[in-house]
Amino acid sequence: MLRRCHRDELLPLALALRIKPDGMKVDVLSKAISSRLRRHAANDLANIALRRGEGPSYDTVLKLAADRLGVAIPDDEPGLAEHVIAMEHTRSTWHLLPDRERTERWQEARGDLPAPAQGDQALEKLKAKHTRGFSYHVMQLINEPSVPLPGCMFLAWLARPRFDIVLPAILEVGRLRQAVRHRVTIGVVGSPSSGKDAAIATLFGIQTGNVSPVAGSTKEVEIARLPGPTYRAVGPGMGDIIKDVHDEARAILDHIDVYLYVINAQGGVQAREKRDYVELLRTGRPVLAVINKIDTIREPDRERYLEDARAKLRAQPEDFLAAAFDPLPQLSESPLNIPLVRKWIADRLSTLGKDPTELPWLRYATKVERPPTRVQPSTEGSPT
Q1: Rounded-to-integer distance, Cα 71 and Cα 382, Å
Q2: Which of 134-143, 285-294, 310-319 shows the lowest per-residue confidence on average (mean pLDDT)?
Q3: Looking at the chain, which terminus has fewer C-beta neighbours within 10 angstroms, N or C?
Q4: Which sequence spans correspond to the domains of the chain?
Q5: Cβ distance 155 to 63 under 8 Å?
Q6: HEC assignment per residue over the chain
Q7: 15 vs 58: CA distance, rounded Å
Q8: What is the radius of gyration, based on Cα positions, of the chain?
Q9: pLDDT beyond 80 at 23
Q10: CB 42: neighbour CB atoms within 10 A?
Q11: Are 252 and 202 in contact (CB under 8 A)?
Q12: Percent of the chain scored above 70 by pLDDT?
């Protein structure tokens, strides 16, 4: 799970475990964190038989921690075990937090103000509001472990031999697990006039005029918040920023999960499109090439046109589609192939281990069967 995080997300955990991350890439840092956490557990929980080598397995660490907290956890389900531990931690320590910090954490978990004073109340209200994604929101009640625990909470846990290191680390691993599962960032990329704004508006119901640009890149990067815990769409001015970006823009790009590469059917696949498409594939993320404005190509010529475009890109059939995000009214009354694009996004996110259930169109996406390349009008109407 740690290897699926981005390096910057692992730094608070590395700091809590007293690891110097300088020069470590994600794989090395992940291994160091795992090893240090398990070795700390062997020592901190006084499990003498497991002190040698790498320490106990993470499942054993969770079991030992749960025993210390007096709660039962399921076997071989680390995500659920972390959830149970986080809930018990919230019940027993929430009331110890200063009012201001409790309010800040409550807002981070998207709870309705005022923040409850007791942990049981907080969990009940959070579950009532966030039935889906409850584990994610519970973990938002937990701070990043830059210091083990604040104030009297730290002193209370310190009385339990060195558990001040293991418990915050377990809670942070649980927070990262939920963040990885629920965080979705979709990059919408393409040459000028390819229809990126229309793609974002039609797919997500968001007008890009309302999103905030991130300064410092050769072209503006725009971020739109989607429904769901941490769903974002990135675009549309991303044509050249893959190679030359400001640190802030790069941090955003590093968190992109899937790309939609939008190509204007009128211009076709030229040298620029082929170059940018290859650059996207090199990121290692799934990339869907979308030939937009397909409504402007005569219907008898579409199959041949699409085969030629796919051959030029060397795109896999399953990662290539035609669409019309904002068709000409005289050519089509509604957008074309929007369900197929949405289904591709949901399928790829599921393959990546994400939870796509809060995508606004999922109830449609799971019902769509994919035809070869024939263009179908959307049956969904305009997005709300």
Answers
A1: 49
A2: 134-143
A3: C
A4: 2-180, 191-365
A5: no
A6: CHHHCCHHHHHHHHHHCCCCCCCCCHHHHHHHHHHHHHHHHHHHCCCHHHCCCCCCCHHHHHHHHHHHHCCCCCCCCHHHHHHHHHHHHHHHHHHHCCHHHHHHHHHHCCCCCCCCCCHHHHHHHHHHHCCCCHHHHHHCCCCCCCCCCCHHHHHHHHCCCCHHHHHHHHHHHHHHHHHHHHEEEEEEEECCCCCHHHHHHHHHCCCHHHCEEECCCCCCEEEEECCCCEEEEECCCCCCCCCCCCHHHHHHHCCCCEEEEEEECCCCCCHHHHHHHHHHHHCCCCEEEEEECHHHCCHHHHHHHHHHHHHHHCCCHHHEEECECCCCCCCCCCCECHHHHHHHHHHHHHHCCCCHHHCCCHHHHCCCCCCCCCCCECCCCCCC
A7: 19
A8: 24
A9: yes
A10: 23
A11: no
A12: 72
Closest CA to 181 of 130, 139, 226, 242: 139
CA–CA distance, 212 with 66 (Å, rounded to integer):
43
**Token digits of residue 110:** 């998207």
Task: Calculate the average pLDDT of the chain.
Answer: 78
CATH architecture assigned to 191-365: 3-Layer(aba) Sandwich (3.40)
Q: For residue 204, give the nearest of 360, 347, 75 by alpha carbon.
A: 360
Taking CB atoms within 8 Å and a gap of at least 24, the contacts of 271-280 are 272/191, 273/191, 273/312, 273/313, 274/312, 274/313, 276/189, 276/190, 276/191, 276/239, 276/242, 277/313, 277/315, 279/242, 279/243, 280/187, 280/189, 280/242
Compute CA 178 distance to the chain's CA centroid, rounded to the nearest angstrom: 9
Return the structure tokens found at 262: 């939008």
pLDDT for position 90: 93
pLDDT score of 148 more than 70: no
Q: State the helix-helix crossing angle for 196-204 and 338-351, rounded to 10 degrees.
A: 80
